[in-house]
Amino acid sequence: xxxxxxxPSRVQWSHDVLEVAGLSDVGLVRAKNEDSFYIAEPPRxxxxxxxxLAVADGMGGHLAGEVxxxxxxxxxxxxxxxxxxxxxxxxxxxxxxxxxxxxxxxLAQTSQMLEGMxxxxxxxxxxxxxxxxxxxxxxxxxxxxxxxxxxxxxNDHSFVGEQxxxxxxxxxxxxxxxxxxxxxxxxxIRTRVEPELSxxxxxxxxxxxxASDGLHGYVEEAQIxxxxxxxxxASEAAARLxxxxxxxxxxxxxxxxxxxxREIDRMIERLADKSPGLAYAKTLPGLEEPEx
Length: 292
Ligand code: MN
Known about the structure:
The protein has 292 residues and is of the alpha+beta class. The protein has a single domain, classed as PPM-type phosphatase domain (Phosphatase 2c, domain 1, 4-Layer Sandwich), CATH 3.60.40. The chain contains eight helices and 13 strands. β6 and β7 form a beta hairpin. It is globular. The two termini are 29 Å apart. Manganese (II) ion binds next to α5. The site of manganese (II) ion has 6 residues, from α5.
């Protein structure tokens, strides 16, 4: 199956301007991890195109969920090898998501085992001057922690998410609602996909969190906020967040990507410039247990 063998369970790197950590865990109940994540890997000159982060939560029988989420993030990573693009970054990310959807639909046709597979995909691209472009489909989430306040930057494309926005359900009610698994937008399901786009201006000290619903579906935002605030580095924050999901029963696969913005000034230029002070680590499943 494409991409599956190479999926890391943990990636982290830190630099004077930016620190990033991703961690994925199967949880305590599920047999397989159908989540995938992507963190652009330095040192690479093409970081001049920005730092791409993504989390995907796959669905479907057999291996289909794993294939869907890993293919979606693999496809997004081809952003770095694409020809230069004339339009805006928002248009570019949106186009990548539409193409990822087409790729998944075509792949599903190739094997009966892959029929009906789908995935969420929350991606964020950090570009020069601290601009963060978000492109999102499904019920994974992207949060911003700024000056002690945690705020979701994405809407859940789910039945209960819509009910919460309409004021018909509270967040707590949504978390235990019998229809909480109904996704209203996903990749690989329909020929048309409409990604939700937004743009943020980041500040030094900001922390970005991308998470699958194995986190926010079981852990309250107050706890997520506290873990993000109290952790001195992104890798510890990621480990603490995954630990909270496991403490809550580990009912679902859980995946988090945490980025800490240290400096905005010439951030991307400095990252792309061979990055002498860079520390980097990657763990493949089965080679080493991720930190808990
Ligand atoms: Mn999930």
